[in-house]
Write a sequence for this structure.
């Protein structure tokens, strides 16, 4: 195994007049949950289809452990993926769906029952998939992704249509997969879904990666070492802190944002000048802020009804 | 290849559709064959034609059900999006396509054999004395007709699979396949130029292929029986190549 | 605590009348905005035209002899053995027929005695020997008794029973201007009038005499040539006869509507005193399919209907099954919860679009195909403008009914491949079966009465003549049902399945 995980380099793809991918490059490392974030139509699904060898690109490469997908002998033991949970024959049961997939990889039926149990579908496994709820289909899709016990898992919008219980289950599940040393790539267009799950983020817009960093680094960069101060003597405090070289701004009736000074220095200065205050805290930007900041300008559709780029 | 085949076989046996289509194909084929033999005006001197061909007439309708089976094997996956799952599991598209074709061939071979033997049996029961001589499986030409009709049904299945892979939509695919099969004979009836008429009969997938059923009057056929089946095989091969190429070059 | 009052929301857009017209408009918008469906309809129309052009250019019958036509313009057979002399002005002729025997070949050159029901032996008065010229005749026939016929298409029955030596038939033909009267007698003394014919175009001097005709005999689904010999006696005449010189010849020996004598047969006459023995073949009658096997018909020109059928069936089925596959049906039924009306609106829109496409195709195809065929020397069975209109409208209606059938079956099956196959097989397979050489006429007729293939009757243009034996089978363009009745069978299937589909749509979960 030359390079573990997924390495995507310089993908370019055009559908008629639309440039779907415009130099998409990133890598997905083992042991981490990597969030693949971007607005609808930014190229997330297309990139995933390219990684799986379903769509051809005009330029660039997408390699699984250093090899193109189509050269993998038993691909499901290298990458497990879920693109569209609805892509099922409505007349076939979950177990039989997994069974044919298992047979395509030379896997035994025993493995099918294992993954069914793992995703909690045992009671419904022999019912026709046509009657499944969206959440059940998502679980079946996850089971299919786990079938080959692959070191890489790639899921397209796995939280879509899940109920709160399902979302909590999915988060824990993804964390445990990463903890087992797998590379996990999860796409989403909603920040809140991956907020507490991802270790690493790839933010895409207009067909390319516009940020590729750890979640902590991204938040720190967006927070910019700012401190929030709550005080009833706002004018006095601002004068004292500005005098000490900080940049200050009133952000509310009794709140001030201070940057340029660490929090302990601010507390010392205020105590020295006997300025009353009730709270000093480090200001933390949310991922939402980061995301909006990054994707501003990269968003292709800002209409009231976001639409996926149709192919 | 073996795992891909195993997967396709699991797919075809774990939904009810294919089995019912095959059973329907057998029932329709035997029913039409029996109907045709029982209405034919047979006298001691014969039925005014080829009794083997008469008792195998059920393939006229049986082939339509084979075409549905073949089309659904591929357009069903395009309809639901499951084709992506299939190609993710078996990324070599030629292998995935070949596995489908082989599985279909197996299914049609079994169903077709039952349908054809059932038709011959019905023919023997319905045509009392006349049929005995002509409908014996120990008779070379009859055996060729029976075996060839099963091959014909397989070829129609492969033709349909190729068309459906190229076209992807099931209704359009089945329309094209049934058009290819049924329109040529009707068109050749209205063409008054005998040379052109004979040419149409030679190139039409159904007219040419069914010459494999002829056991009498072979010299008056536009093509020899095996050459006729070869024409149908050519159509099937062309459709498979077109479908296979498009599957390879198109995004799934 | 009092709850704050909230004004209920009023839609800003006033909805229009909750009418069926809106539903139609919605379905029309759905139809026209899917490129594939519009293309399918255009392709259907083009296929009708293209096949018409193909059948036109693929035929080459240049230089074939002209088809004789009768006074009414219809194609005729005017080939019989005629023993005649001129009659100036008015007069009458009487003869007895004491035998009429026919032979049919069993094999090449092997003539055996047989029955030819419409073998004819009798008297004829004709405006010369020109092919297709006006005439009136009275005759004994093989098994249809005495008949009086004139101008090819008219036929009146006289005394029944065959002519024989024990029971001869006496016949008399009387000319008075353009009025020809025929009489028959079974004893030579008591005469009964059989009929009167007004034959316009008879010159002042007509050719009058004895004739023998022997049309092809229907054997199974085919025909075979025949030859007949009759014995005449007691020849008497009154009026402007020129003498006693009789000329005998087989008329129309090279006409395209005459298949010729069977091998070892030929025409002749012998005379001894008042007794004549005459042998002839052919017929004097309107031409039918077997007498003009290479002639073109409107249904032949419109063979493209079959190709168009497949296109409209595919579009018809997709018009409903796509809604199920994409769950668009939820949106449709949410917008108009009365499900039966939705289906009806779909049927009307689809039927109307198909009708227009089919009519456009047929209206272009008919004149183009006819013109091209004629240019390549093909004789086209003549049709009146009203028949031509009926065929064009009927073809459009046939396609429309088929598309509605496909829509209904699609709604019942909710599966496009199954629906398309069912409807194609139901309409096209019976047609293939009737073209099979094994198919007895009774079964072919039954198939074209009860299956949706009955609708092809609407394209038939050939006329059945009871006085001409011919395999009147659907394969030969003679359908058991009248044109509109045949179409009604298909329309019945369409309406019935639409009703079933509406019931199921209401009963089933969407």
């Amino acid at each position: 195994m030359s390079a573990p995980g997924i390495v995507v380099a310089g993908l370019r793809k055009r559908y008629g007049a639309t440039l779907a991918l415009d130099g998409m490059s990133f890598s997905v490392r083992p042991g981490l949950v990597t969030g693949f974030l971007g607005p609808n139509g930014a190229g997330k699904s297309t990139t995933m289809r390219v990684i799986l060898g379903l769509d051809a690109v005009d330029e660039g490469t997408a390699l699984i452990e250093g090899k193109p997908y189509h050269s993998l002998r038993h691909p499901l033991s290298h990458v497990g993926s879920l693109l569209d949970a609805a892509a099922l024959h409505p007349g076939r049961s979950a177990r039989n769906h997994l069974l044919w997939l298992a047979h395509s990889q030379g896997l035994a039926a025993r493995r099918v029952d294992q993954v069914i149990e793992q995703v909690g579908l045992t009671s419904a496994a022999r019912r026709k998939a046509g009657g499944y709820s969206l959440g059940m289909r998502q679980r079946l899709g996850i089971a299919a992704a786990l079938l080959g016990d692959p070191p890489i898992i790639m899921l397209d919008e796995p939280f879509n249509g899940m109920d709160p219980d399902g979302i909590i289950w999915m988060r824990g599940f993804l964390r445990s997969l990463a903890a087992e040393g797998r590379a996990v790539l999860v796409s989403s267009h909603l920040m809140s879904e991956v907020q507490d799950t991802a270790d690493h983020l790839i933010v895409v817009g207009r067909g390319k990666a516009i940020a590729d960093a750890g979640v902590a680094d991204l938040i720190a960069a967006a927070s910019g070492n700012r401190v929030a101060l709550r005080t009833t003597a706002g004018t006095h405090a601002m004068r004292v802190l500005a005098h000490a070289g900080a940049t200050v701004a009133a952000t509310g009736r009794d709140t001030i944002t201070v940057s340029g000074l660490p929090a302990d220095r601010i507390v010392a200065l205020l105590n020295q000048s006997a300025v009353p205050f009730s709270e000093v805290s480090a200001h933390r930007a949310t991922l939402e802020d980061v995301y909006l900041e990054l994707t501003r300008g990269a968003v292709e559709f800002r209409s009231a009804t976001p639409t996926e780029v149709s192919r | 290849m073996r795992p891909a085949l195993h997967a396709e076989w699991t797919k075809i046996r774990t939904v009810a559709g294919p089995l019912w289509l095959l059973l329907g194909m057998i029932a329709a084929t035997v029913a039409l064959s029996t109907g045709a033999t029982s209405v034919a005006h047979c006298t001691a001197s014969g039925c005014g034609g080829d009794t083997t061909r008469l008792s195998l007439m059920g393939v006229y309708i049986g082939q339509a059900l084979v075409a549905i089976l073949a089309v659904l094997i591929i357009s069903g996956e395009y309809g639901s999006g499951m084709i992506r799952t299939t190609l993710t599991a078996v990324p070599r598209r030629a292998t995935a396509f070949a596995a489908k074709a082989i599985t279909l061939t197996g299914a049609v071979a079994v169903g077709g054999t039952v349908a054809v033997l059932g038709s011959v049996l019905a023919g023997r029961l319905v045509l009392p004395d006349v049929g005995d001589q002509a409908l014996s499986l120990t008779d070379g030409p009859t055996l060729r007709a029976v075996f060839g009709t099963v091959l014909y049904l397989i070829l129609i299945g492969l033709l349909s699979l190729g068309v459906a892979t190229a076209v992807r939509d099931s209704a359009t695919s089945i329309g094209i396949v049934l058009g290819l099969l049924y329109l040529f004979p009707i068109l050749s009836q209205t063409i008054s130029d005998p040379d052109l008429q004979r040419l149409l009969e030679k190139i039409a997938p159904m007219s040419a292929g069914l010459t494999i059923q002829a056991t009498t009057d072979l010299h008056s056929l536009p093509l020899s029986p095996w050459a006729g089946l070869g024409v149908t095989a050519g159509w099937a091969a062309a459709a498979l190549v077109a479908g296979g190429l498009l599957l390879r070059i198109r995004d799934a | 605590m009092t709850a704050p009052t909230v004004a209920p929301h009023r839609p800003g857009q006033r909805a229009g009348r909750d009418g069926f017209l809106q539903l139609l408009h919605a379905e029309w918008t759905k139809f026209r905005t899917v490129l594939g469906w519009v293309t399918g309809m255009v392709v259907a129309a083009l296929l009708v035209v293209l096949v018409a052009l193909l059948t036109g250019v693929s035929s080459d019958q240049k230089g074939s002899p002209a088809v004789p036509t009768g006074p009414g313009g219809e194609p005729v057979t005017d080939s019989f053995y005629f023993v005649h002399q001129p009659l100036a002005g008015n007069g009458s002729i009487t003869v007895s027929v004491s035998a009429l025997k026919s032979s049919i070949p069993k094999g090449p050159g092997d003539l055996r005695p047989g029955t030819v029901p419409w073998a004819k032996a009798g008297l004829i008065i004709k405006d010369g020997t020109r092919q297709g010229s006006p005439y009136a005749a009275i005759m004994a026939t093989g098994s249809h008794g005495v008949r009086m016929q004139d101008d090819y298409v008219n036929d009146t029955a006289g005394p029944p029973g065959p002519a024989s030596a024990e029971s001869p038939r006496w016949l008399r033909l009387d000319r008075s201007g353009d009025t020809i009267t025929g009489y028959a007698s079974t004893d030579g003394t008591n005469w009964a009038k059989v009929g009167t014919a007004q034959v316009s175009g008879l010159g002042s001097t007509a050719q009058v005499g004895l004739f023998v005709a022997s049309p092809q005999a229907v054997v199974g689904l085919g025909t075979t040539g025949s030859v007949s010999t009759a014995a005449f006696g007691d020849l008497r005449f009154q009026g402007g006869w020129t003498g006693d010189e009789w000329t005998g010849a087989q008329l129309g020996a090279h006409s395209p509507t005459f298949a010729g004598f069977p091998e070892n047969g030929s025409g002749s006459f012998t005379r001894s005193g008042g007794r004549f023995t005459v042998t002839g073949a052919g017929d004097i009658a309107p031409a039918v399919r077997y007498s003009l096997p290479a002639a073109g018909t409107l249904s032949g020109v419109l063979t493209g209907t079959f190709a168009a059928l497949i296109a409209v069936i595919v579009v018809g089925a997709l018009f409903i099954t796509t809604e199920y596959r994409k769950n668009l049906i939820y949106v449709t039924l949410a917008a108009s919860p009365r499900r039966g009306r939705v289906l009806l609106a779909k049927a009307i829109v689809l039927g109307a679009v198909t009708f227009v496409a089919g009519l456009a195709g047929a209206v272009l195809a008919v004149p183009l195909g006819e013109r091209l065929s004629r240019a390549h020397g093909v004789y086209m069975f003549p049709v009146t403008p009203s028949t031509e209109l009926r065929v064009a409208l009927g073809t459009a209606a046939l396609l429309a009914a088929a598309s509605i059938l496909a829509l209904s079956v699609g709604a019942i099956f909710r599966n496009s491949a199954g629906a398309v196959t069912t409807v194609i097989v139901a309409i096209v397979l019976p047609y293939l079966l009737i073209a099979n050489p094994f198919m007895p006429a009774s079964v072919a007729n039954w198939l074209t009465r009860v299956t949706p293939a009955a609708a092809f009757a609407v394209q038939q243009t050939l006329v059945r003549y009871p006085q001409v034996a011919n395999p009147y089978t659907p394969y030969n363009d003679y359908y058991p049902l009248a044109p509109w009745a045949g179409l009604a069978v298909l329309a019945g299937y369409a309406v019935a399945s639409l009703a079933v589909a509406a019931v199921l749509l209401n009963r089933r979960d969407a």
Remarks:
- Chain B has a mean pLDDT of 89.
